[in-house]
Amino acid sequence: IRKEMGNITDAVLASSLKGLIANDIVTRKSYDEIPPRVEYSLSEKGISVVPILQSICKWSGAFYKEDPEHMMIHCQKCDYQ
Questions:
Q1: The model's pTM
Q2: Which of 20, 32, 57, 63 might form a disulfide with 78, Cβ 3.0–4.6 angstroms?
């Protein structure tokens, strides 16, 4: 998860990741290194929701394709085409 998606505090990010992990959407892998390193990735369940999210972006594009001011930033970056 990249923090460039918007202004988000570390506490909100950590809380969101914990919820996604608890719901088996994201997996967490920690490495015994200095400095500590942690990687997050989509689980099989998380990957299964990608087509649904892409459909939502496609739907949004049908209404806001010519109006980028109102298009969600995530949909602007989506690769649904």
A1: 0.64
A2: 57
